[in-house]
């Protein structure tokens, strides 16, 4: 009997609740409308006296109300500062803190702090009620003229450059003053923090010229940044050199023109003058050839041939060395550690330790070792300046080229010991007789093939080898050949001005390639071939002491035993060494 009234009350309660919610929403909407109306009325009230309202709607501050910047704007007459003067304008840095901090430490901010004439926010951006959006095309197009208000001569050069011409054509991606110098934190180009300083200008130019998308869009060469960074100038700059040529040194600063323009500093007819700023006499006898050398098919044919030759030679030579030594190590470890018996062994062994190096030879060897290690370290530090092992040489590179002088000092020592070796051979008959044991003979080649076959398991019996066999001879003559190549190419690179004034630049490009690849080959050969013979060979491990006391711990055929092949050429006998 109570079902109907209860249902009726529930129905009425639901409707009452819905009407309540609707009322709340209507009340909130009315309140918001009043607030918006009040704000609009406030702006309208300001506009009744101030004409900035229409300008403000089109500016970057359009979303702000008057009271955001003008406190107590609703009071009339408006509050004044002390002395009855109008209230001061709000500081832009109150909202734009980061920009204000950058400006304060910039050349403009410091000048303003000293009381000198300097642009402020309003001069560059316009008044607060009508400033344009910084990323808009209108604002960017006006940047050169804005900067030209003070830097008129510079801007004239810029407008005539390839960058200024691109801006005039409406290219939105063309660099402006602010893209290179910065916006609010502009510093002098002598300041290391400036994006146009000698240490950072390459990265600044590379932001566009190293951008693959922009290079494809505008048909710019895509390898300019990479080829510069791989050149001597780029590597030295990357290592911290402050006096080396950079992009601006050759292409100009604000007056950059296409290389096809007769006025361009990199026009073929002007290259001698441009390069001559640093390299006196460059290009006077021969035209300066390609400057940006890359491995993209545009390098000179001579450089390409050098690259192909060494990239074929290095893997082949080092691979054969690794195979030879790996097989030798396996056989000797099997004999030393597991008692394996070889089917052949040296016929006789010396009863006393064998003298392998005389005193003067040990001195030469010590100087050679030290100079070579320093040359390899300091040389590769130029090519790979970002690696941890190169950092000690580059600590003072921005003030003093320590790496360069260390490399050249080691080079002088290396050449000096090579010359001393030649002189000693002419002066000392004992040393000359010792040296003759390293002279190549016909049986060396057959011994080398037999030794390789045995180490690779292609031959069962171990071949006999002379006291100074193919291993020692290959090492000695490789050092001799490498010393000549490195000395000649290194002198050419050291005497850059001399070479550029007398020979085509392509000779230096070839010398650079040869010097690098020969250094790679020599270093790998020392590590793989020589270090194995004197350190890792189980017969001498942990060290062959011949370099220290002249005596080798290795068991070799006796000096009195006959050679396994043809007799040596007649000459002074040496029963002490070899």
Describe this structure in words.
This protein is mainly α and 578 residues long. The protein has 25 helices and two strands. A two-stranded antiparallel ribbon has the order 1-2. 19% of the residues are buried.
Topology of helices and strands:
Elements: H1 3-47, H2 52-57, H3 66-69, H4 97-104, H5 107-114, H6 121-125, H7 137-148, H8 152-160, H9 162-168, H10 177-181, H11 201-209, H12 212-218, H13 224-230, H14 232-238, H15 247-251, H16 271-276, H17 301-338, E1 354-355, H18 359-383, H19 402-427, H20 429-436, H21 442-455, H22 470-494, H23 496-502, H24 505-536, H25 546-549, E2 551-552
Antiparallel strand pairs: 1-2
Q: Which percent range fits the helix content?
A: 55-70%
**Helices and strands, in N-to-C order?**
HHHHHHHHHHHHHHHHHEHHHHHHHHE
Identify the overall geometry. Answer: elongated
As for the CATH topology of the largest domain, it is: Fumarate Reductase Cytochrome B subunit
Radius of gyration, in angstroms, nearest whole number: 40 Å
What's the β-strand tally? 2
CATH architecture identity of the largest domain? Up-down Bundle
Oligomer category? single chain
Give the amount of beta strand, in percent. Answer: under 5%
Calculate the terminal CA-CA distance, rounded to whole Å. 130 Å
CATH superfamily descriptor of the largest domain: Transmembrane di-heme cytochromes, Chain C
